[in-house]
Write a structure and sequence with these properties.
CATH topology: Rossmann fold
Helix content: 25-40%
CATH superfamily: Alpha/Beta hydrolase fold, catalytic domain
Number of domains: 1
Strand content: 15-25%
Distance between the termini: 78 Å
CATH architecture: 3-Layer(aba) Sandwich
Largest sheet: 13 strands, mixed
Number of helices: 15
Radius of gyration: 24 Å
Structural class: alpha/beta
């Protein structure tokens, strides 16, 4: 009994000391909305501001539109809230348009890194813990929540539900950061955006639309491309109709009636439906953000004038292939496996399908070979070809460098199970077993780029080679000269290499002839 009382007293003392320390170690910052209070964290030394509102989510008949300006408040806002937007298997709230700021202690005029999370536009949130290395390097880190799933990307291409609400949230977040970061000792002219997966696609759309010009000054794009078949929806209204029917809608197919239906049901009803919501091409209006096909924007918009670091993973361990019996044999009809962003007449589809099947599976004998060929096929069409192609166009006529990396280190696959986006885990995490060297290389490269716009401004023992940017003049008559595309391979041996052109030439011929343009349909 006596021992229990001693333990209780000690626990109370620790709680009291911790509470007093919490009260003592805070920082009040006056923002454009009011005063926010963040709290000191010791490892590494920084102040954390969690759940700071950057916008007000619209409600009622405006719930799928662009966000509203943030509310003003009197008194002090306690920035301690770990919020998430509504999504499956998570406790989320529609009042989720917040960001988290992690400010290194006792520094001023710091560069800023803003991270947009992955999640295929269906899930995810701004991290509630900072990447330790960047804090130690004197870099402010900001993570952002934005609407996802139906609230963020339901699209009827209509005035009430125009689409791309989640992208408009991101613009509002960047605007808030640009206006307020100086009050957190940040430099509003040194803002780098970092997107992984769908976050990378988002940044490309913002770049190409021009809507966020001046709000950030460098971009890191990881494992995502706006040119990938899985990035932009072709049939947003059909997808919306399917969602409405799953939710009990029995009306006609007019967008006006579907608008009314979606605007009046609970957001929680969207969490258990099958349709996938993604960015769409909007009807041109005063408030639209994304009006043209991405390849047209990439070719036409020559004013993307910021340094870019683009990285993709050469992953060979794609779970959906490894664990699915469908991919243990080669189908007779390969047509249904062709990318959905090709428009091929029935009369020639069989020929293209046979050509593709022969290119990837021509000499396959064993089940293991088949699985490997499927991995190569998926990696080429969803990742490598679109990323390399867009990188070449971004380098074209850009007065700033574009750095391209192929991450092919095998050990990280064992540690992180080989999924896309694991470069982020190496960069944002403390060192993990057997990944310290490669993690240190990536962290230093990222830090150099954020601060200087160059991942290898000097050579060191850790990084003995200079990462060469993509040559700017490798496009002639809108055709990429892939054999001239330089990239930095980060693997067992790190070095600059030139693209092996076989698969790129194959897909370039097909896409030049059969690419399916995204269009707004009246």
């Amino acid at each position: 009994m006596f021992l229990r009382e001693i333990i209780l007293v000690i626990l109370i003392q620790y709680l009291v000391i911790g509470y007093v320390e919490l009260l003592a170690r805070h920082w009040d910052v006056k923002t454009t909305q009011g005063i926010v209070r963040g709290y000191y964290k010791s490892n590494p030394p920084h102040f954390a501001f969690l759940g700071v509102p950057y916008a007000r989510p619209p409600t009622g008949y405006d719930r799928f539109k662009a966000p509203k300006p943030p509310v003003q408040w009197d008194g002090i806002f306690e920035a301690i809230y770990k919020l998430k937007c509504p999504q499956d298997n998570e406790n989320g709230s529609e009042d989720c348009l917040v960001l988290n700021l992690f400010i290194p202690d006792n520094l001023t005029n710091m560069p800023v890194l803003v991270h947009f999370h992955d999640g295929f536009f269906q899930s995810g949130w701004g991290y509630h813990h900072p990447p330790p290395f960047f804090i130690k390097q004197g870099i402010i880190v900001v993570t952002v929540n934005y609407r996802i799933g139906a609230p963020g990307f339901l699209c009827l291409q209509s005035p009430g539900i125009p689409g791309n609400a989640g992208l408009k949230d991101q613009v509002a977040a960047l605007y808030w950061i640009h206006r307020n970061i100086i009050k957190f000792n940040g430099n509003s002219q040194y803002i780098t955006v970092y997107g992984t997966g769908s976050g990378s696609v988002s940044i490309e759309i913002l770049l190409l639309s021009g809507i966020a010009d001046g709000l950030f000054h460098k971009a890191i794009l990881e494992s995502g491309s706006v040119l990938s078949p899985s990035s932009i929806t072709y049939s947003p209204v059909k997808i919306a109709m399917k969602a409405a029917q799953e939710l009990g809608y029995r009306g006609d197919k007019t967008t006006k009636n579907m608008e009314i239906f979606f605007q009046t049901i609970s957001v929680m009803n969207f969490l258990n439906i099958t349709p996938i919501f993604m960015p769409c091409i909007e009807k041109i209006s005063l408030y639209s953000l994304f009006n043209d096909d991405p390849i047209d924007l990439i070719k036409l918009r020559k004013s993307v004038q910021i340094p870019m670091l683009i990285v993709y993973s050469d992953t060979k361990e794609i779970d959906v292939i490894n664990n699915n019996k469908i991919f243990q044999s080669i189908p007779e009809n390969f047509g249904h496996l062709l990318p959905n962003n090709l428009a091929i007449d029935t009369s020639v589809q069989e020929k293209v399908a046979k050509l593709t099947k022969s290119f990837y599976f021509g000499n396959v004998l064993t089940e293991e070979d088949i699985i490997q060929c499927y991995r190569d096929y998926v990696n080429d069409i969803f990742m490598e070809y679109p990323v390399v192609k867009s990188s070449a166009f971004y380098a074209y006529n850009n007065s700033n460098p574009v750095f391209l990396m192929k991450f092919s280190h095998r050990e990280y696959e064992r540690v992180f199970k080989g999924n896309y986006g694991n470069v982020l885990k190496l960069v944002f995490s403390d060192n993990v077993d057997n990944t310290q060297d490669i993690g240190d290389i990536l962290k230093n490269m990222w830090s150099n780029f954020i601060k200087l716009g160059d991942p290898t401004p000097i050579t060191t023992t850790l990084i003995p080679d200079v990462w060469m940017p993509v040559e700017p003049n490798i496009i002639i008559d809108e055709k990429v000269k892939y054999h001239k595309v330089t990239y930095y391979e980060c693997g067992v041996k790190n070095k600059n290499k030139e693209i092996t052109t076989q698969q790129f030439t194959f897909w370039e011929h097909i896409y030049m002839k059969f690419y399916k343009n995204h269009k707004y349909l009246e």
